[in-house]
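# step 3/5: fold
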Amino acid sequence: MKVVVIFIVVIPSMLTSLSFIELEDHNIPGVSQASLDWGDYDNDGFKDLLITGHTGQERISRVYKTNADSTYTYQETIQLTGVNYGSGLWGDLNNNGYLDIVISGQADTEDYVTIVYENDGFGGFTARSDLSLPGVRYSSLDLIDFNNDGWLDIFISGDTGSECITRLYQNDGDGDFFWREDIVFPGFMHVASCWGDIDRNGFPDLIITGEVNGVKTTTLYLNYNGNTLMPQQNTDFPNIFRGSVALGDFDSDGWLDLLLTGISDSGRVSQIFQNTNGSFSFLTSFTGIGYGVGIWADLNNNGLLDVMISGAESGTYNNIARIYINTGNNNFELLSEVSLNGLSTSDIAITDCNNNGKIDIISTGLVYANSRVTTVYLNQIQTVNTPPTAPVDLITLTNSNHVSLIWNDGYDPETAISGLSYNICLRPLNQPDLQLMTPMADLTNGIRRVSRSGNAGHSNQYSLFSLPAGNYEWAVQTIDSSLTGSEFSPWCSFTYPSGFLPSPANLQIIKDNSQVYLSWDPVEGATMYRIYGSTDPYAPDWLLIATTENTNWESTISHSGYFYRIAAVNE
């Protein structure tokens, strides 16, 4: 591995040093009109890179596998439609434990696309040609469970070529996405968006910036109940486009703060707005940029989120890249000695590339006209992040229309308790291979498969809606400011609705030539047992094949590779 030391910064007041090395032999092309996202698509413990954009010769969408020796291998067998002016994201859309891909953007001069690629679990991806999602450019794409039903939905905003749109497509949990026409937004272009629970009511809210009918706009939409998103007035945010929005709790008070970059009518901005009990107020400005991005990241492992920006200070190619260290007490210090590639029409993504407990950086974009570069910066700080501890004392409250999952806080030596987020896994009882709410993490050790905050946000409780009647178990992990996960808590089981009989335990299946024998433990209160079968363990609907009053059953085998479930009922 060829490396070159690019900077070392010492801040006496913080008694820490921050240094990076630039990885030169990664073979990842530079792209403009770019997007970057990290995700462990093959569940090997290393997060892999999804990159989209224009190389100067062609549009690309590629996956680069991260190897244990900090090298990257282009996965040529994963064929994705190349796009620019768009996005590529990882997300487990079908809750099978493997990350899928969603791509949107401009694929050709007059061809705009939004495509879902389903991960088959064996290293392959298949385009979902049966889905009808509008293609967009100058766009934004988010994967978010906006209605708390455990399934990731798709948010799209941008220019279709004939109109500008902003739409939510709800995941029905059965492989389809339908447009929520009752949730109405104006159409945006040159758009940036992000979601997070700003008012701590348990539902993710939306911040979106861009151009609406030629007018620069920044709007906050509060999500009141998973079905109603209302625009808020008098937020005092600058109206911008060609920029970025990012939510992060920089002061570790449990309320998500806002980082905005972009071009306003009065100039370019990079600003922080502090969230106090759900209300935003302006905190500070950095050097303004357009055609770029601003992100939150705990680069020095002190438990506080720092800021990195990259973009054009003026024009299109007068580029800068800067890091501002969070020193506490609402203060950020510019690291003036830092020398990073300033890039425009760019993107930045962070993760712990080599699993050494330090946040690394990748950036890509235009240096100047027709010169593009991708740079991987490996963090060399001496302080190694300590993983948090798991939450404890899980309880479940069942209500008429939802289930409340509640736990006591985890702990982290660096991140304040109020700055921690949490990540839930929910699955049917006694069916460990099925997930109804995916954590996008390894259940055996807590290692994350994406570099994001937890799916339950910063609260220590989560309400789940639209849950079918059944028997379930759930566990939760703690996520710190470096996006590192704890191990998962012990499992907590419940039935919904209250009084629903639990599934029989100790299901035994014995195959003997052409016969199959099933047995299970009795369930108190059960008057009979229903036996369901399927050739696909992930199918939403299983066939009822028999009922019995006994705790055993046998039959002639009519299928190979058949799966069984037993339901206890009282009738």
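# step 4/5: annotate
The radius of gyration is 24 Å.
# step 5/5: archive (pending)
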